Structures are given as C-alpha cells and as structure tokens.
Amino acid sequence: MKIGISCYPTWGGSGVVASELAMALAGDGDEVHVISYALPSRIELIHENLFFHQVVVPHYPLFDYPPYSLALATTMVEVARHHHLDLIHVHYAVPNAVSAVLARQILAPQPLKVVTTLHGTDITLVGNDPNYLETTRFGIVQSDAVTAVSGALRRTTQEQLGITSRIHVVPNFIDSSRYELSRGLPGARRWARPGERVMVHISNFRPVKRVLDVVEVFLRVRQEIPCRLLLVGDGPDRPRVERRCRECDACDSITFIGNLPLVEEVLVGADLFLLPSETESFGLAALEALSCKVPVVATSVGGLPEVVEHGVNGFLHPVGDLDGMAASALELLSDDARRRRFGEAGRRAAVERFDEAAAVAAYREVYRLALGGEAKAEGEG
C-alpha cells in the first residue's frame, strides 16, 4: 500500500503517534510518505520505503498570516499524484483534514482516500473555537474514515461538533520492545542524589497541562521524604514554573531536562509519574511511564481512565486536588513493594492493551474500510 501521513512535527502526542505509525508501516513493507513543514521529532528515516516531504510556505508582503493549509494541500496533491498514493492519513483535524479533502478534490478523477485521526485539542480547544468549528466539522465529515484515540474523545467529538458519522477508536500505542531495551539504563537515577525518590513529569508545558500543579504536589511530598522532580519538555508555561521554583527555594531539587526524543531515557528508574492535566484525550505520556514500570498519579479526565487503572497501576484524582495527589504519591513512594506491584501491573497493561502491533493492525482495518472494504459484522471500533 502507498500511504501518505501528515502531522505536526512537534513534541506533542499526535506527532509522536504519527511518526511511530509511519515507521511501523514502512517496517512492514508499505511505502510511506510523511508530509509536514519539518521532519517530525520521532521520525527515523531508517527504511528505504519511508520518505519525508517538506511543506514550504511562501512569505509574501500581502499575507500577514501565510496560508499553511493551502501549501499543505498543494504538497499533498504533488506527492499523491507523483507517487500514486492510495490514501492519506492525517493526524489532527485542523488544518490537516481540510487540506487533505481539498487535495482529494483537486486530484479527481485520480482517487485519494482520506483518513483522519483526532487527537484531542483539535476538538476540545481548536475545533470548539467558533472561528474553526465549521471547517473542523467539514474536514471530519468529508473524510472517508475517522478515528479517535480514546472513547472519551469520540464522545466529545460527537457531542461538541454534532458528528453522527462513524468514528473508530484506535488507542495510542507504544513499541514495548523499545522500552524493554532501555531497562538496563540508569535513566532518572542520573539526576538523583542517594536516598532521593524521583518524580517525573513530561509535557509541552501548555496551561492545560497544569505544570504548576506538578510543582505544588512535589513540594508537599518533599516535606515528608527526600525526593527530586524531573521536568521533561518545554513550552509557554516554563518561565512561570521556573519562577515558582525560585520562590519556594526548590531549585536544588527540581531539574529541567528540556525536550527529549526518547523519553524512556528519563522514565526508566523513576519512582512516580505525575500528570495533573486539566484535560487529556488519551495521555500518551502516562502510557509511556506505565511501559517503563512507573506508576502514575493523574487526573480523572478525558481518556486517562482508559489508560490508568485507579488502585492498580496508579491513582486518579479530580483536577486541582493537590492534597489528594500528594497523598497518593506519598503512599506509593513510602511502600516499595506496592510501588513495584503497581509498576508491574502498568507494564502488563501497556503490553497487553496498547502494543504497537495491535494498533497498526487496527489502522490497517480502517484503511481497508476507507478503500471500500465491508465493515465487520460486530465488535468494531
């Protein structure tokens, strides 16, 4: 099969999943063409049938805001026409889905099927904005097949955008073997002093991630036991978080790592993962932590309850419940045996429910349906 994949190349979950999917498909023998304005951070061009096409946006004095969506559609047309793509799989509805639908119309009568995967903020934030709502709905409705990364996101899409067409749920996934290979690395212990417990948070430091809550939970735990906080990522809220660290005189116990392409290099060896987000469509970072046998303390929002099982491999709390999250963190960090049990349960869940092979197979089934195959009689997404 010849497949185009379009995504944002940033460090967020949508770009990570799109990159991992592209490499997995190429590894299985498909011809895969990745289309974006920069090479996605996780992409490794290690397969002879994996290609990258950069979208170049011209800058003219006439345009205060260069029309990326049109440049993206044009690049999709050129790649599909020259390489005879069977379908294009876009990750994120705005503007990728709309650009793909436009590319399909330009290419007619050459067929090009459009598969759209919804990742979260393209619906809950961008897509729900009145400035984008109608175009977001149009891109979804006009797609030949649509997937969402969690049941919670599917429900939100249907409710907020009034979507009645079918949306298949294909959860995010991890390559469990890659995390297994990292097990012998020192990981998080590289930054820890003797006797310190290590807590980790990974995000793009946007307000919705509530990174200041991470710091406040850590400060509560730090009053009871020696511990260190590793903050992985970067983004708009980082200056506020750094200022808070200085205000509470915790700079010696909080380490900013910055962006990393291989987060397992920090997660391995950690004792706890914190994710107090205001909303999460899935929670890929939580899944990556579970895969590294790190229990998770998170908020019970969006798709997180589909990833973290409360009382089994982590704890879930309402948004803003700092005392509750701190108590759960202390409960795990003070009981090595229980923390290890939670870690083992998390690893089992990651392998059994979110393994890469199962997700790739599910996407292949969606591709088959988009290309005109008959739907399964029952049990499908």
Describe this structure in words.
- This protein is α/β, with parallel strands linked by helices.
- It folds into two domains: 188 residues, Rossmann fold, CATH 3.40.50; 178 residues, Rossmann fold (3-Layer(aba) Sandwich).
- The chain is 41% helix and 17% strand.
- The protein contains 14 helices and 13 strands.
- A seven-stranded parallel sheet has the order 3-2-1-4-5-6-7, with helices on both faces. A six-stranded parallel sheet has the order 10-9-8-11-12-13, with helices on both faces.
- Helix 8 packs across helix 12 and helix 11 packs across helix 13.
- The longest helix is centred in the last third of the chain and has 18 residues.
- The protein is globular, with a radius of gyration of 21 Å.
- The C terminus is likely disordered.
